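To the wet lab folks,

You asked to see what we're planning to order before we commit. Fair enough. Below is the target structure as tokens, and below that is the sequence we designed to fit it. If anything looks off to you, flag it before the synthesis order goes out.
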């Protein structure tokens, strides 16, 4: 692939949250004003402002869209965290839908307090994007990976390795947004998509991949290196 291209603009909030933040702010301000003017006692006003202002602050944090750059163009073989959150699964699993063999799965759970933008975990070319309707189990449960609503993005790296990235809706999340398009080149630092409210992202890697994170470890999307792929013999020799 050619030189990595920086496409992200410097924005403060993700565009997926513009309507939610705008209308939420208007409703919060309107009700606060009515309570302030409608009661001699200011207790109802302050109680509402503290309670719903705190909720609004969580939503504002949720829709933050920090501009991030990985910091180096040497990303060959690296798998970067596709999301902010916590590592909840590192295990070998049988992947029957696409690979039909055993894969190493690393799962990152995003709470309501995490940024919910998703980044491409590797560079390469998008092979396909599949969306599957499903249930809304709690995202950290093992069955959520297969039974919940999810979107599958298969990426082929320049070395010819297929990596599956799965966006999974949680018990609260009801909308998965995927920006990845089939046959388009993709780069670390670019947004893969967005999941609204608590959710999870799984990455399926070939056996033999070196995992560089531990269970329970916090990750930063587009910053934390979660694994290193086993390169073909000729590529390994080139790096020695």
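Sequence we intend to order:
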């Amino acid at each position: 692939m050619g030189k990595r291209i920086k496409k992200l603009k410097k924005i403060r909030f993700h565009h997926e949250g513009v309507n939610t933040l705008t209308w939420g702010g208007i409703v919060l301000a309107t009700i606060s004003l009515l309570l302030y003017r409608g009661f001699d006692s200011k207790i109802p006003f302050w109680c509402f402002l503290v309670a719903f202002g705190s909720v609004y602050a969580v939503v504002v944090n949720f829709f933050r869209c920090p501009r991030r750059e990985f910091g180096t163009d040497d990303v060959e073989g690296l798998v970067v965290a596709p999301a902010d959150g916590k590592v909840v699964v590192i295990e070998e699993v049988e992947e029957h839908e696409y690979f039909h063999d055993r894969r190493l799965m690393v799962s990152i759970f995003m709470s309501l307090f995490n940024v919910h933008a998703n980044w491409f975990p590797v560079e390469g070319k998008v092979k396909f994007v599949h969306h599957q309707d499903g249930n809304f189990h709690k995202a950290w449960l093992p069955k959520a990976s297969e039974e919940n609503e999810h979107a599958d993005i298969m990426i082929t790296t320049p070395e010819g390795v297929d990596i599956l990235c799965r966006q999974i809706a949680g018990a609260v999340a009801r909308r998965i947004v995927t920006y990845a398009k089939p046959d388009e080149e993709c780069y670390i630092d670019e947004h893969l998509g967005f999941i609204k409210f608590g959710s999870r992202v799984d990455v399926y890697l070939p056996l033999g991949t070196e995992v560089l994170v531990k269970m329970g470890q916090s990750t930063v999307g587009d910053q934390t290196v979660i694994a290193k792929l086993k390169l073909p013999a000729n590529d390994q020799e080139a790096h020695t």
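Structural context that might help your review: The first strand starts at residue 78 and ends at 80. Residues 18-38 form the longest helix (21 residues).

Thanks,
Computational group
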